[in-house]
Amino acid sequence: xVLQTLRKGASGLVAKAFLILLTISxxxxxxxxxxxxxxxxxxxxxxxxxxxxxxxxQQYLDQIQRISRSTGRPISQEQARAFGIxxxxxxxxxxxxxxxxxxxxxGLALSDTEIAREIRANPSYRRPGxxxxxxAYFEQLLRANGLTEVRFIGMEKQRVLREAIVESLAGNxxxxxVLREAIHRYEGERRDVSYLAVGPQAAGTLPEPTDAQLQAFYDTxxxxxxxxxxxxxxxxxxxxxxxxxxxxxxxxxLKAAYDANPGRFGTPERRNIxxxxxxxxxxxxxxxxxxxxxxxxxxxxxxxxxxxxxxxxGLVTKGDLIDPRIADAAFTxxxxxxxAPLPGAFGSALVHVVSIDPSQQKPFDEVKGQLRQExxxxxxxxxxxxxxxAVEDERASGSNLTETAQKLxxxxxxxxAVDRSGRDPTGxxxxxxxxxxxxxxxxxxxxxGIETDVVQLPESGGYVWxxxxxxxxxxxxPFDEVKxQVRARWTEDETxxxxxxxxxxxxEQAEGGQSLAAIASAAGLEVKTAxxxxxxxxxxxxxxxxxxxxxxxxxGSYGTAGSSSPTERxxxxxxxxxxxxxxPADEAIAQQLSEQMENDLLxxxxxxxxxxxxxxxxxxxxQIAVGGEQ
Length: 630
Hints:
- A hairpin with a 4-residue loop joins strand 12 (455-457) and strand 13 (462-472).
- The chain starts with a helix and ends in a 5-residue tail after the last helix.
- The strands form five sheets. It has a four-stranded antiparallel sheet with strand order 14-3-16-15. A four-stranded antiparallel sheet has the order 11-4-13-12.
- Helices cover 50% and strands 17% of the residues.
- With 630 residues, it is α+β, with helices and mostly antiparallel strands.
């Protein structure tokens, strides 16, 4: 955290640049030819500069600690390697060293005097609120980060020089106006259209298909009508709900549970309370005397400059009142009564009861069934693990699920036939078995006679065991068996073809000069309009693909496209194109574009340095440094 303070005042460009280096895939360093043997004291060499093992390991461990602090949980070195942190740190150091080599080659340097002046002028290196640089505070920051002044100044020199290289390359890059305008138009353009929705009715009635047509359609699409593989599965589900139905709960236990929670089955008494607090007991007593003499509670409040809202505590339960003495008095008085002066937590007080809503309690017989179910379910949860162990013991002894269920008095269910998608031969989803998705997936991954793993239901919901009883292979269903399905599919396909042909015919009329209104009148259709359409914002009749066609069509031109309904086509005309003026959002996009261009230039530059200087990595030293090899 302190090191972040030390860096806080630096220009953000270098930080952004090296963040990109940190996250770039290792591919940029040429993984195939980079890892070669090198000196054992270095993990890598870039040009004439080595990255010492000790320096790399220190940065690697520092990065692990930073991530651990930010996530609030420690990260082991094994996890760090799995996350790729070791390669990321190496990438970062290679990028920095490549720039350092470039600096050395160019003969760039920075004097101690200049860097000291920059440090003194940077408010981030001052004590919070201080107007002047304090050497003692600066030394404190350095010690907190394990740095000496000499080492930090050296680091700052390298940072400033790297920044100079990067800013000379990518500083103040601005996205071209043409690009900004193109993106603005693409994102912000709105279109209005007039259109006809051409559906099956507009296409006319299809003739009844002949058997020959259906047979031909079947022959062409046999795979569509093929019966899937089915499996018969025995299922033993052990859940709190399945166990609860066998658990008896006595009336005595039910009554005890009812009596132990009287407030649960009703609503507590609530009272509309008013309260006036006085600064001392004498004022409270004087007010009480006036009430006894005939003044109302509101009269006392008005005399003190208080309105009804100032004294109203609302409709509250006894537990809502913080002060127990006030609560006891308020819930003892009858409606309309006012208390004597009370020593409250904030001074002497008078309490007035405006009205009372009495408590209501459901009778025992009304909630007995609910209690019975809840208690049985709770006892079932406690028995669940014991039953689980009993089932596992039976399975371990060689019993199948049928034998296990009979011996333990449990209910066994059988799914007669289910396909990979979890549907039965009628096409209905199988829903009677808990954890059905895991059961079906496991059943199709195993074979009859092989014991499968138990499915553990989420949130302690129980366990499901299953055995594969039988496998019915996929088969080609004969035409007569699926004739009705073939007819339905043929009708659907032919309807789509007829609708498409009708839409094309109407489009030709529109392109020939007829108005949409005239075409709609002749075809018995309605001209519809839609305004403010946006790219990719599907809604109503317009799917994403439909919108793409609309935005590919010129203003005033016609086109056809699919609809959100598979058996409907739209014939449309682009009536208006609106592009809003640029605003603050466009400025943010322009800034992002500029940053992306800066990052692209930086990546290309560092890649060029790598190729020019050569990058060599000692894989063995690297593995030892990250703890991957001893």
